[in-house]
Amino acid sequence: MPETDNENTVKTLSNELKALEKTLVHASKDNAGKFTRDLLVVQNRLYAQLESLSWLQRRMIIKGQLPPLRGWATSPDVLLRLHSHIMATRPRVIVEFGSGASTLVIADALRQNGTGQLISLEHSDYYGAQTFGTLQAERLEGWVDLRIGELEAWEGEHLNPEDAEKPSRWYPTSLLDGVENVDLLWVDGPPGATCLFSRYPALPALADKLSQRAEVWMDDTIRQEEKDICERWANDYGFELTYYPLEKGLGRLTRSGANSSHTLMPSCYGTALTKTDAPERALGLDFSLNSSENKG
What's the rounded Cα separation, in Å, for the pair 36 and 32? Predict the structure, then answer.
């Protein structure tokens, strides 16, 4: 008996529904797989930060706890690297732009070394007071010269266009009076919302105050602005530039020919990170530095 039009329609719809069901099942499996992969990436990144925080806490000799290291704060993986570098190289003078958790970490490393001084520049009275209170609580204020001054117009060379919506502003240069022979420059301020390329003046302002072995470290190089700044500094001031794919990125500028191959952590904790590593692969205590790393 010939099929009626209704039967043909039902069969067609049934076949289409089966095909759609099959497509949805495959899509669901694909999405579930992608979700699982994304979840594993987040889990691994979180584990890496917790592991770094654990090692950092073991290395530091403080009575209290570190400030929260999320949001705008420097990530545990960078702070661990910073603390290790200072203890390994024993810098005499360190300058940082932007106080906070890094101030406490640097000061602790200096105290353990028994030598050196940190000059910390901060634009906010509020955050400066918080930092100073933490240093006092840990009896570290003697290792830090905390200088606070509101941001003001920057008249020197800048990457910020002259017709930019926000004019160039930076720390008062008077805060740098008496600063000489800087061995390490740590750049984590002023805030990015200040103006375009807000951190650029750091090296122009201190170029003639650096020692021969000086290094410049830039936080947050997952952002293109910070990368642009680092690359301009490297070109203009003769530094070699290396990027490290940590959680928020780290740019490290060293003098050409200087010995920058020392290890920041014991070699048993891992091999060097390379510029080509994806962030999700930069896991665990993979913190040693050596000359085989790619330069930017």
Answer: 6
Burial 124-160 (b: 16+ CB within 10 A, else e): beeebebbbebbeebebbebbbbbbeebeebeeebbb
Q: Which residues pair with 243 in a beta bridge?
A: 251
Reported as a single tens digit per residue, the pLDDT across 200-245 is: 999 999 999 999 999 999 999 999 999 999 999 999 999 999 999 8
Cα angle 70, 73, 75; round to 5? 70
**What does the chain come to in residues?**
296
Q: Please state the pTM of the whole predicted model.
A: 0.76
Percent of the chain with pLDDT over 90: 60
Burial letters 267-290, b for 16+ CB under 10 A, else e: eeeeebbeeebebeebbebbbbbe
CB 84, CB 91: distance < 8 Å: no
pLDDT beyond 90 at 82: yes
Beta 250-255 vs 239-244: how paired, if at all? antiparallel
Helical (H) or strand (E) element with 39: helix 5-59
Taking only Cα atoms into account, the Rg of the chain, rounded to an integer number of angstroms, comes to: 25
CA 116/CA 262 separation, integer angstroms: 19
